[in-house]
Records
---
Amino acid sequence: MSVETVSYEELIPGYKFPPATYELSSSLVSKYLDAVDSAGDGFVPPLAITACAIAAMTGSLSLPSDAIVIHASQELEFFKLVPIGATIECHIGVAQKITRSKMGMLILEFEVLDKSKDKVQSGKATIALPT
Amino acid sequence: MITEIQEGKALSPVVKHVTQEKINLYAEASGDFNPIHIDESFAAKTPLGGTIAHGMLNLAYVSEMMTSAFGQSWLSGGKLRAKFKEPARPGDTLTINGKIDCVEQKDDVSYANCIFECCNQKGETIVTGETIIKLLGDKE
C-alpha cells in the first residue's frame, strides 16, 4: 500500500497528516519494552503511544535523505490507560512553521484516540531541521 | 511507588546505558529510521559527528521513573514538558533524577509538580523538564 507523502515545503500551519491507526499488540509492546530496556507493567507505555503518533507523521513526510531532524522539545498529556491489544487512532497536524535563515522549525500537535473515540493522549512536538 | 507526596521528595533515579543496539531497536519499534540515529557513516559526516539516540528514547526513561513513582496517576493523568539540550550518544550512561517541586490543590484534587533532569556520565544535561501528576484517590 502506498503512503501519500508531503514535502517539508508543502507543509503549512493547519495541515493535517492522514490519520493513522495502530493495533498495540503484545508483540509491538514487547518490541518497544526491549528497546527502552523496561519490564513494563501490563499496560501500553504512554511513550510507545507517542512513538506511534510521531511515526504517523514521519511516515507521511518526505524529507531529503540527508536531512538531520532534531527533536527540540516535547509536551505530552495522558488521559487514559491503554490496555495491550487496543487499537488507537493518531491525528497529527502542523501548528506552526518557522523558518529562520538556514533552519526550519515545525511545531506539531497530535491527539490519540481509542476505539471509543476517547482521547488517550495529546501532545506537541517541536522539531528543527536545516532548510 | 512513592509513599510520601511532599515537596522536595526525590524520586528514585533511573540509570540506563545507551548502545547503538538499543538505538537500532528503538528505531525498529518506533518506525523512526532517520539516518542520524542508525547510520554511523552518515552521522559521522554531520556536525553531530556520530549517531545520536532518539529524543523519545530518553523521554521513555523519564516516563519509567514517573511510572515507578506515581503508577496509574502518571499513566492516566500525567503531563510532561521537556527540552532536549544535548544529544545522548552510544556509550553514554544516562541518569534521570527528579523530585517533587510542589504539591497543589485545585478543586479538591491534588497535583504533584515535579522537575527532572537527564544527565550523561560527564554531567552534561541531556534533557530537562517538568511533569504534573493528577493524584488519583482525592476525588476519583
---
Amino acid sequence: MKQDLDWEPRLVGFLCRWCSYAGADLAGTSRKKYPANIRVIRVPCSGRVDPLFILKALRLGFDGVLVSGCYPGDCHYQTGNYYARRRMAITKKFLEYIGINPQRIQASWVSASEGGKFAEVVTAVTEGLKEVGPNKLFADERREHRAKTTKRG
Amino acid sequence: MKDGNIEQKLQSEARALLEQGRVDYIIGFEAGSLKFTTTPLITSNIADIDRLVVNPFIVNNLSVYLTEVKGRVGIVAKGCDSRSIVSLIQDKQVAREDVVILGVPCPGIIDLSKVERLAGKDRDELDDITREGDRVVITVDGNGREFPATEVLFDNCLGCDFPTPKEYDVLLDVSSPLVSDKAASQEKLDKLKGMAPEPRWQFWASEFDRCVLCYACRNVCPACFCQRCFVEESEPQWILPVPRWQDSLMFQVVRNIHVAGRCTDCGECERACPVNIPLRSLTREMYDLVDELFHYQAGMDKEAPPLLAAYEATDAEDFIR
C-alpha cells in the first residue's frame, strides 16, 4: 500500500483532570517539546473512560488512543484509576484478539508534577504509531471517498 | 437424565410454589410449535403447570426475563443459566430472596442444526431424537442411528465446566455425567488465533457485513440489562441506525467489553443471530480472557462484587507506561 509521505499519526489522549491533564499543562509551561500529534480530551477521571470512547476514536480514523490517569493510590476519587486499569487490560487484549494492533491502545500514569514524563509518553506513543502505520481498520470505499472530499480535523 | 421423572418433579415443585403463594410467576419451558423445539413459558396460572417440560432441547437462558417480570419468580435454570442469575444478583438487578431457582443438572443441549447435518435430513423428517448417556439416537423412518453425543451438542456445551447449577433452591436431579469435547468447543477460536492480525480483522469485517442491527444478541443476553443502551443514544450518536459493518462490529465489540465478567458462555447471542455471525467466538474469548487476567469466572459467587466494579491492588499493569 502506498503510504502518504507526509502522513502523521493522529492520537487521542483522554487525560484525567487531576493528574495527567495537569501534567500536560506543566509540560507546556516548562517548554517541554513533544509531538503535536496528540489531541487532548479532558475527562474527570481515567475511570470515566468507557471502552466505547476508544472504539469510537478508532472508528473515526484516529491512529491511536492514550488513556492517562493518576498513579495507583493517587486518584482524586480514591479508586477510579483502579477500575480504569482493569477495563484497559481487558480492552487492549480483546482488541488484539479481533486483529487490532495493541500499539494503538495505550495507557499511562502521569502525575501533575511529571511534565517531562508526559512529553516522553507522547513521544514514545507517537513513534510507535509511526511504525504501525495509518489506521485503515474501518476504512471502506465510501469512507475513502469521504476522506478525500471532506476536510479532516 | 430421566426426563419423565424430572418433569414430574418440576411440575410438582412449581405447582406447590404457586399454590403456597411463594412465587408470583413460574418461568420454564414448554413444547415449541416446531418439532423438537421448546419455548419459554411464563405463567402465574396453576393450570399451565402441566405444560412444563424438561428435555435436551431446553436451549434458552431464561434468566433474561428476571429483570422484566415483576414480583417473585420460580425459574428453571441449567448450569449456565444459574450463573447468569447469580451474576444478576451480584449486579443487584435481582434480589436472591425474590427468585426460587429450580436447578436442572444439564447433560448438554442438542443443537438441531448439527443433528440435521448428521442425519442429512430436515428436522421435520426425523421421527425422534433421544439422548442415552454419551450417545444420541436419531430415528428416521423407523430406523435408529447412534452417534456420540459430542457430535450434536452445542459448541458452548462441549466446553462447559459447570453443567450443574451451583446456586439453587431445588435441584431436580442428581448431577449428570459431563460429556465434553474442549477441542471441538474451542475449534473456531483456535482457528482465528492461528491467523495473522489483518486476516483476522478482515474475517470479522466480512462477518459483520451481514449484521442487520436487529439487536437480538443484546436482547437475549441476561448480562445486557442496561435500561438504555449506548446504541440508542442520540446525543452523541455513537452509531448510526443504518447497518454498516463498521458500526455493527464496533457495537458488538463494545457490548462484549461491557458484559465482561457477566457472560457465562451460555451461547444465546450466537443462537439468536438471524444471520449466523459466530458471536460465541467473541464472547468465549472474553470469558477466557477474564479468567486468565483476573482468575474470575462469571456468576460463581453471589457475594462477590462484579468484575468491573472491583479491583485488586495487585492487578497487572505491565501494559501501562
